[in-house]
Amino acid sequence: MGSMFRSEEVALVQLFLPTAAAYACVSQLGELGLVEFRDLNASVSAFQRRFVVDVRRCEELEKTFAFLQEEVQQAGLTLPLPEGALPAPLPRDLLHIREETDRLAQELRDVRGNQQALRAQLHQLQLHSAVLGQGHGPLLAASHTDGPLERRPLLQSPGEPHQDLRVNFVAGAVEPHKAAALERLLWRACRGFLIASFRDVEQQLEGPVTGEPATWVTFLISYWGEQIGQKIRKITDCFHCHVFPFVEQEEARRTALQQLQQQSQELQEVLGETEHFLSQVLGRVQRLLPPWQVQIRKMKAVYLALNQCSVSTTHKCLIAEAWCATRDLPTLQQALQGSSSEAGVSAVVHRIPCQDMPPTLIRTNRFTASFQGIVDAYGVGRYQEVNPAPYTIITFPFLFAVMFGDVGHGLLMFLFALAMVLAENRPAVKTAQNEIWRTFFGGRYLLLLMGLFSIYTGFIYNECFSCATAIFPSGWSVAAMANQSGWSDAFLAQQPLLSLDPNITGVFLGPYPFGIDPVWSLAVNHLTFLNSFKMKMAVILGVTHMTFGVVLGVFNHMHFGQWHRLLLETLPELVFLLGLFGYLVFLVACKWLRVTAASAASAPSILIHFVNMFLFSSSPTNRPLFSGQEVVQPTLVVLALAMVPVLLLGTPLFLHREHRRCHSRRRQQPDEDTARLLDLPDTSLASQGSDEEKAGCPGDQAEAEFVLSEVFVHQAIHTIEFCLGCISNTASYLRLWALSLAHAQLSQVLWAMVMRAGLSLGGKMGVAAVVLVPVFAAFAVMTVAILLVMEGLSAFLHALRLHWVEFQNKFYSGTGYKLSPFTFAVEGD
């Protein structure tokens, strides 16, 4: 947990990898996930790098894997997860994997092609059998009638040229949605010189491509003349009809039908054997493909990482640069030595200086990952900057609970999150693909604390589904009020409302032990009391939260050695914030402690005091809360205003003075350096070309880039943002008050209009039991949908805004970038 408060120290290392062991070394680094490689070949295109051929081989294998996986899914099968840790395969094993993959792919293509051909042939036989089996009896009977009117046309030429015409047949099958159009087109094109019969096939036939059952329509067309026959064949071809030979004799048709059925049975047997062999091939694919996919993915990642390395001048080793956590350097050195031991030359790790800002590395676990994700969504922290995530673990659920405080609602949220936490190791839960579920599951620990804190604030508000609970005896006594006030039956009948006076002895016995007294839920001024209480509570929490953010900035200044910012920025910010709004919190606490029930009628107004503080005036009707208040208020305003020029000009002037002093010091430095170099031996001049000396120091670069105008503009923006932000941010925390009241009132409305109305409907026990079932169901659905989901999302977003805008901008820049280590682990594992 040490790295949670500040990002870990990260160093830039140079790796010297022997060429023979470079693949093994990078593969081991991928298993460990310790380093992030820097691209040393950024100016080289991807097609000109050293290992581009190997990357292409892996990509070709991935394409073949995609084909095999698609075939498996098409067969309705699933690929199992690979078992155990699979290392990246050696380069010599790639040829074996490629040969086996190509062989399996070719077998699948051949078997699948044979299966499709057999299915198409079987489909043709089934359609042909259906055409022959339909009969179309009336049409055949009409073609064989012997009457003179049926054999020749009504009008014939003297030479009777049509005497040798005979009736021909075209039989086939067509899809149902094309049958009507085909019939109309045949009638119009042939002008009635045909007789067509269309019938639906009684049994659905399996499609050769999709495998789904489909209905077909068979047709039998009789016509006269060769030209009509050509038209009919062209039309049926346009409609993609299946045309089959048709014989007129019934006995011949029966023989042909028997032959077709026998051929269909033989084809079905062959098709069954083909599908059995296909299932065997798919079984081998299921067994071999998952580990191959993992191994080739690792191999491709290794070659992509090697493409980022540069080659030494002797071509005996590869040189890589990588970011690595300082605490992992011994592990890195040990892993490289173990991987390169077989090559005879050990890999070398060399730490080098760098002027670039290192990446940010913050290690998380299941519990802290969701809170760190909230912070990183605003921006990844700068290197070695204070990390707000540990404090967000407490403040975020608490601010959410302030707006969502209800024991019942918090308990439901807590139980839902607890169920996800207890089932987090189940494979079905972890591998669920529903996006909404994965969002909730990723933030299960956040929801757990949000529900727990909501239960706590619900006990403080004394609300459980908007109903108060009397856990402890009330601090108000109605009996004492009735005895000492002389309430009679006539008085009680005339007064719809009764007042409890705490000044009467025995009426107010003392504060409620924990939370708000349940008697307030019966009072007509309940909302007024909660309004005042929650508004003051929101201001106190807001000022405390912002002050804590400013104090956290102290640790940033101390860590980065910016001691001048403690006096020129942090101290003026604290004086300005606490002098104005810290004083407002002091007035609230002072009024709570000093004003009693006896003096409540003449209690001073905090709002009037706070307005008079900025107007440098006083109100005679508004008595002071403490002695010397008239002097303290103007002093605090003047002191806060005096901090503005200090905050605006202090840092730029200090940096300008430091820059001028360093610049004058560098002017005197060249003469001394020249005299020193003349006295040194010649061998020392050759050592000035090392990488360490060429790197320079970060301080020199900062001094060279110093521009007073830019620093002044930046500081002016920071000053204006902070001073105006103190006002707007304090007002922004009033959303705690507003959303808390809204949630309580919405919960109360839902209870009154649903549950209370349902309880009042049934007078008898049986009627009440029947009525309460749908009423409780409606109440439960609306509670979950409106109060838990909608109101919970609203409170979550407002708590997120309070952390990002009002809290984190006091000390957190969020201008860094994450350390993305080279690792084989898949995100979410």
Determine the structural class based on helices, strands and strand pairing: alpha+beta
Poorly predicted runs: 141-156, 677-704
What proportion strand? 5-15%
Mean pLDDT: 85
**How many β strands by DSSP?**
11
Indicate the radius of gyration in whole angstroms: 43 Å
Helix content: 55-70%
Shape: flat
Major β-sheet profile: 5 strands, antiparallel
H/I helix tally: 26
Distance between the termini: 21 Å
List keywords for this structure.
829 residues, alpha+beta, five-stranded antiparallel beta sheet, four-stranded antiparallel beta sheet, 7% strand
Protein architecture, described:
By secondary structure, the protein is of the alpha+beta class. Among the domains are: 10-107 and 275-351, no CATH class; 386-475 and 510-651 and 718-810, no CATH class; 476-509, no CATH class. 60% of the residues lie in helices and 7% in strands. The strands form three sheets. Strands 1, 2, 9, 10 and 11 form a five-stranded antiparallel sheet that branches. Strands 4-7-3-8 form a four-stranded antiparallel sheet, with helices on both faces. The two termini are 21 Å apart.
In short:
InterPro entries: V-ATPase_116kDa_su, V-type_ATPase_116kDa_su_euka. By secondary structure, the protein is α+β, with helices and mostly antiparallel strands.
Indicate the topology.
Blueprint: E1 10-18, H1 22-32, E2 35-38, H2 52-74, H3 93-134, H4 137-143, H5 148-151, E3 167-174, H6 176-190, E4 194-200, E5 205-206, E6 213-214, E7 217-224, H7 226-238, E8 242-244, H8 250-306, E9 310-311, E10 317-325, H9 329-339, E11 348-352, H10 369-378, H11 389-404, H12 407-422, H13 427-430, H14 435-442, H15 444-461, H16 478-485, H17 489-494, H18 526-559, H19 564-594, H20 606-615, H21 629-679, H22 691-695, H23 698-704, H24 708-732, H25 735-759, H26 765-807
Antiparallel strand pairs: 1-10, 1-11, 2-10, 3-7, 3-8, 4-7, 5-6, 9-10
